[in-house]
Amino acid sequence: MSPEIVLDVRGLTVEFPTRNGILTAVDNVSFSIAKGEILGVVGESGAGKSLTGAAIIGLLEPPGRVAKGEIRLKGERIDGLAGEALRRLRGRRVGMVFQDPLTSLNPLYTVGDQLIETISTHRPDLSASAARERALSLLIDVGIPAAKDRLFAYPHQFSGGMRQRVVIALALAAEPELVIADEPTTALDVSVQAQIIALLKRLCAERGTSVMLITHDMGVIAETCDRVAVLYAGRIVEIGPVADVIHRPCHPYTIGLMGAIPALDGEEDRLTQIPGSMPRLSAIPQGCAFHPRCARTSQTCIDERPLLTAAGSGSAACWHIDPALTGAGS
Amino acid sequence: MTSHALIRAEHLSKAFDVSKPWLERTLSGEGRRTLSAVSDVSFDIAAGETFALVGESGSGKSTIARLVVGLHAASGGRIVFDGLDIADPASARQFAAERRRIAMIFQDPYASLNPRWRIGDIIAEPLYAFDLVKNRDEAQARVDELLRLVKLDPLDGVKFPHEFSGGQRQRVAIARALASNPDVIVCDEPTSALDVSVQAQVLNLMRDLQDQFKLTYLLISHNLAVVRHMATRVGVLYLGRLVEVAPAKTLFANPRHPYTRMLLAAVPDLHLVGRARTAVQGEIANPIDLPPGCAFHPRCPLANGRCTSDIPQLISRDGADIACHAVEEGRE
Q1: For chain B, where are the alpha helices, taking DSSP H only?
Q2: What is the pTM of this model?
Q3: pLDDT digit of tens for each residue in chain A (330 aa)?
Q4: How many residue pairs from chains A and B have C-beta atoms closer than 8 A?
């Protein structure tokens, strides 16, 4: 019996028409998130991870557009929504946590006002005092000390970590089915980062909320997620259970990426390095986008684009996956 | 303290004036306010080693980097470079001649390279500034050599910074730092603006260059894994004070100060999938209004009455220097 699928993305393609032709920032990306699952989306800058999140919640900035593909939330198409339907989706059914907690809060309103506004917008059935009660209990839930007084405080009176807690409270205010967290801890110090990750994990587990966690930090992915999708040049190169992707990566890019991360207990003299850097959107190579940087490149890699195929316990998009790994699970 | 330290910081302090403007201050009857970014920090860096300073934001690590290269003047204490006090007017002339021996790499390669200058000119600037070349041809030859050293093409010299990726720009910054044949390179978060795969390239390059030219690094970073990979010795800063100084191996295997322990426990690590991290209590205090005594005491599980009143000094224990009353009294 498979668990209920909350988010299902099929063949998502995001394009930016420009004067010099169409740039494909997200290219044929498919994945799904089950109820209560935390899916990590990891990649280097320019891999298209934030755009994937933005496309799901309808925040693509024009001229960016979803050119192909389907996004379904509990079976219901949510790509191409507009106006009122989109407003009901955002916040109510899909919550969002952005990287910078200072710019995602309005500096002119108190934290309490912002929470109460969000709650009463999505839950018009609640009375003003009930909405206030809920706002207070949310602040207590996310661990703001002296929450009762802090309702009347402005965002600038909070520290970075406390602000991010408020943003998480806002994202969860309407009890959404899915939370998209785009680099939620990147702007924070490590000691605070640990608190925020633990908080996000606990709250979503309590509520059964699914999470799409977008980050460049493999360490955060390792300890938070159930499954992880690795993006490269707008494509998923590998997706699978987090322990397998980290310890037994199949795709050459994932292998290189894991070797490039210095370990805390490591005695390694040199880090694995991947030559070159991520291609620009205007110059994504033919065939496998990774072939110019890959040690295993053959003619097939240059000519033809690999599709995601079963590898290990997940899947990877590469022509040269060790045959021993494919179909190992079937 | 060893006698052959290349750089020695002695009781270094730096306070910034963060008072309101005079009129506002007078009207509201407030006094001057200072933020002490660095207080009473002493350390030695021996030739050829990599000394790393780690800490969270506001711990004063970048301020120390800037003090060492002379971008800030110290409010107290001094920095001795190869026996010369860099701020002492008496040795100013002598130090000017030695100035080329310290170079710096900054965090943000997008801000540290002049967008209107060609890469070749950026790298050649220290050559002219320190009178290291006699003519243009000599400068050109040296620039080509430097570009090759950092694994760029000499033909890249005519390009502008915007034509390069972040990792390539950081290589250009390294080439510029190497131009004057320095002994010491102060690296302020050299890879925090870079992606991991590019970070690995830059860290490997920095290590190769260190072996090749016997460089001494002062590495500033908030990334403990990078520090673990690069450093010989590590100093941990908390709110402007050194709380622990130890050889890297010792520090990571056996952290003694409660803050160092907390910091290490908080780092997300690849090899611990699904591990529940020790959630740390509280946040770093406001540096304008420091807690009395040990600045870490409000977050410290071992704090007692003495910690709230006396500032702990560094004491030696098993090859590490730790500033903690609990460690000193054996209350760990």
Answers
A1: 22-28, 61-69, 92-98, 119-129, 136-149, 166-178, 196-213, 224-230, 248-253, 258-266, 325-329
A2: 0.84
A3: 467 899 999 999 999 998 888 899 999 999 999 999 999 999 888 888 989 999 999 888 888 889 999 999 998 898 888 888 888 888 889 999 988 877 889 999 999 999 999 999 888 888 999 999 999 999 998 888 888 888 999 998 888 888 999 999 999 988 899 999 999 988 788 878 888 888 888 888 898 999 999 998 888 898 889 999 999 999 999 999 998 998 889 999 999 888 888 877 766 678 888 888 888 888 888 889 999 988 888 898 899 899 888 887 888 898 888 766 554 433
A4: 139
Give the other-Cβ count within 10 Å of B116's Cβ.
Answer: 8
- Segments making up each domain of chain B, as ranges: 256-332
Query: Minimal Cα–Cα distance from B115 to chain A, Å?
Result: 20
Q: Are strands A178-182 and A94-97 parallel, antiparallel or unpaired?
A: parallel
Element (H, E) at B278: none
* Residue B155 neighbours by CB distance under 10 Å: 10
Strands A21-34 and A5-18, by their bridges, are antiparallel
Determine whether the interchain pair B195/A270 forms a contact, defined as Cβ–Cβ distance below 8 Å: no
Residues 175-194 of A with CB under 8 A from B: 189-194
| Residue A35, φ and ψ in degrees, nearest 5 | -60, 130
DSSP secondary structure, B294-312, as one string: STTGGG-TT--GGGGTSPP
Q: In Å, what is the CA distance from B301 to each residue of B29, B262, B310?
A: 38, 10, 17
Give the closest residue to B217 by CA, choosing from B174, B254, B260: B174
**CB contact (8 A) between residue B268 and residue A197:** yes
Whether residue B200 and residue A271 make contact (CB cut-off 8 A), yes or no, is yes
